């Protein structure tokens, strides 16, 4: 065990919401284990909160709470700062001040990292401190450290992630019960899986920030948040889910980062994946990240993507790593962007498509539809006719084609007299 | 990009079999990427082989091959040594000599680590160098670094691993086709999934070494290899697999490490797990490790557990990490055994059991059987009668009970006149 004489490392904690409370509680409850693992005790120097209060569920001296977070992070002798406030400001200013004060920083702030990670990294590099953020993507699942360190000798080709629990819960419910989006969202809200304003989740903003972070680490390049193509799940219908099932597929909201022809494609959108794909079985609010690498082949990382304790697990892992480095007067790997790859426009992205059309059921319809695909260079892999008589539905799955070619095809199909409606267009991923 | 003027780090590679060849090839093919990621180029200083030869599939200068591995690892200026020979000797002597010579070591040698990891760790600690071995467990899957670093702020409660591809392939075939063990082993051999002498795999020796390593890292304690309870899959019958299926379960060979009442239980044995468990879908020769931790909850890591390239991916990840440390004049976390937990005897291990009995079909049979369980304090959760008339089969699943109590129950059942045969006894894990 650690001798009590060892000088503690001083930790400033910013935020005492769900995650902050878990972090504080675990720091207290696991103090002996953490001290043994770091080689020095971790001591909470203060907890920055928005309003003065004493939290009964956080077992610390109430005197540790302060509303002056800037004073806390700039105090002399602060070794480590944990930021779990979220949002761009004041989080960014606090982190930059902490780094300038010589502290290593652990954050769960995906929005800030996706928006302005380069500034934070540059500051950390200059100060010779660590900037860790495992909790920012997929909660408790160790995925950023494996990408940054375990797979660093390999060449990652593709990352497919289910990185938003709210949308995965909604799509899982739609798959299990046949419910529509609105009904499944109501259920998610009632069970606490969706926030009162679910926009960030259901429109894919949350997943897009995570996609940018995953792509940057996987491909050693910077991916600006606004270069991430983003579509949410609000347009996914019960009919899409049923049509997927009929083809042996399930609908998931995927964060995708791919290396293609010397560039990266980074996007978030609903997609149909084979029911046999390892990601297909990831239900409820769970997260998973599927990685294909040149030498490793297929890997998957699965677990809880949100919640106080799971997120705190990731924060504390980073905290111990940063504390070990501090105790050993070293620092972990910094930003790696040497590859400087271009981000490919969405129109150039090549994937497969599932297209459902309501059509007149008369001779020549398939020929006209097929002609439209062929005219844009999109070749068809399978066609299925569902329904009958007046009410025919054509379901087509294409071979790989550029997104722009498919978009042009769909526009032309909508204008065809024999096509009553293009009822569903969804990308097909995962083989 | 890295400036060419930077001094290379010199790598000695021991072994040029399947894994060694992949490592050498990737070191050459990915040289620019690796140099950028490390900050300095990695240069192959020599390749230790058993017999002089030039390998056409390893694209290096033939002059690099040497049969004097000891001379290679003790050369001045060797920074990093990769050991992929396997076995206890000469691997141990070579690694210890390399460490004494000041090199960091990356190894895939599970047998040596399980047998004598403490000696290697102590030497690395004394010399201030790294000892990394991600490739020793579950091939390409990043699991040791996540346990050592990502989950280091959490408290791991249980690890369940499918860590042997040969046995998983055999059990998957038995599940899919209804084949018996011998038939499935023949198929595995024909397809190259089983070695000519499959003992190390099918008797669980390989998995036991991995279980010892996983348990040591998960619980910060030393687990001697001979403290790992080990049972292989040679006794698993088609009837066991069918009986599991009838109960909604599948049979897997599991490496299990659990924290129980301040001690650890470490064991390898076939077990029935629910068909809905994340490990149940891990088919063919894939590996997966399921981890339960106090804060993180349930996690799973999935991928390829063997093969040249997947193993080389893990080796190169470690090599880059060790090289970064060397370039930065630091070292990663060493052995952590502060918890010093006792290993619990198998008889004290508490789990659930699936027991199939061929019995006389006459009144009083169930009462007699139930009495036998009750007499040893083993309570029954479910009973199912299969078959009929003269040929009745009772399938019982118990609540959790100590292994010793179950063994005593089974011994007594075998002696009962009404019990013709105890046809299957298998542990039930994973909920």
From TrEMBL, chains A, B:
Residues at which L-homoserine binds: 195
Any one GO BP annotation for this protein: threonine biosynthetic process
EC number: 1.1.1.3
Protein name as annotated: Homoserine dehydrogenase
Pfam families: ACT, Homoserine_dh, NAD_binding_3
Source species of the chain: Motilibacter rhizosphaerae
Residue sites binding NADPH per the record: 110
Amino-acid biosynthesis is among the record's keywords: yes
The protein's role, per its UniProt record: Catalyzes the conversion of L-aspartate-beta-semialdehyde (L-Asa) to L-homoserine (L-Hse), the third step in the biosynthesis of threonine and methionine from aspartate.
ACT domain mapped to chain residues: 354-427
Cross-referenced InterPro entries: ACT-like_dom_sf, ACT_dom, Asp/hSer_DH_NAD-bd, HDH, HDH_cat, HDH_CS, NAD(P)-bd_dom_sf
């Amino acid at each position: 065990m650690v001798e009590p004489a060892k000088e503690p490392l001083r930790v400033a904690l910013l935020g005492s919401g769900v995650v902050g409370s878990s972090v504080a509680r675990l720091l207290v409850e696991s103090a002996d284990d953490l001290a043994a693992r770091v080689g020095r005790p971790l001591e909470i120097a203060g907890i920055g909160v928005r309003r003065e209060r004493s939290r009964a569920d956080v077992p610390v001296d109430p005197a540790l709470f302060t509303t002056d977070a800037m004073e806390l992070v700039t105090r002399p002798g602060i070794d480590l700062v944990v930021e779990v406030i979220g949002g761009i400001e004041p989080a960014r200013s606090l982190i930059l001040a902490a780094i300038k004060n010589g502290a290593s920083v652990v954050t769960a702030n995906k929005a800030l990292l996706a928006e302005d990670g380069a500034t934070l990294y540059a500051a950390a590099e200059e100060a010779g401190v660590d900037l860790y953020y495992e909790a920012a993507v997929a909660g408790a699942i160790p995925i950023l450290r494996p990408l940054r360190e375990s797979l660093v000798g390999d060449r990652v080709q593709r990352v497919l992630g289910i990185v938003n629990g709210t949308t995965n819960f909604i799509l899982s419910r739609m798959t299990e019960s046949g419910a529509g989006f609105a009904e499944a969202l109501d259920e998610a809200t009632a069970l606490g899986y969706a926030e009162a304003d679910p926009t960030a989740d259901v429109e894919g903003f949350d997943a897009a920030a995570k996609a940018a972070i995953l792509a940057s680490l996987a491909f050693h390049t910077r991916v600006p948040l606004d270069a991430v193509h983003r579509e949410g799940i609000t347009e996914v219908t019960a009919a899409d889910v049923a049509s997927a099932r009929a083809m042996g597929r399930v609908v998931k909201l995927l964060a995708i980062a791919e290396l293609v022809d010397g560039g990266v494609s980074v996007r978030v959108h609903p997609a149909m994946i084979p029911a046999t794909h390892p990601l297909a079985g990831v239900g409820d609010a769970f997260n998973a990240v599927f990685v294909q690498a040149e030498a490793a082949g297929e890997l998957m990382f699965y677990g809880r993507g949100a919640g106080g304790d799971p997120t705190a697990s990731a924060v504390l892992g980073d905290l111990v790593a940063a504390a070990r480095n501090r105790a050993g007067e070293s620092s972990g790997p910094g930003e790696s962007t040497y590859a400087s790859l271009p981000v490919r426009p969405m129109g150039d992205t090549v994937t497969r498509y599932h297209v459902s059309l309501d059509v007149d059921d008369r001779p020549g319809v398939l020929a006209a539809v097929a002609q439209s695909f062929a005219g844009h260079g999109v070749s068809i892999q399978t066609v299925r006719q569902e329904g009958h008589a007046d009410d025919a539905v054509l379901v087509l799955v294409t071979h790989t084609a550029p997104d722009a070619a498919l978009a042009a095809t769909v526009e032309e199909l909508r204008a065809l007299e024999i096509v009553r409606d293009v009822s569903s267009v969804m990308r097909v991923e995962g083989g």
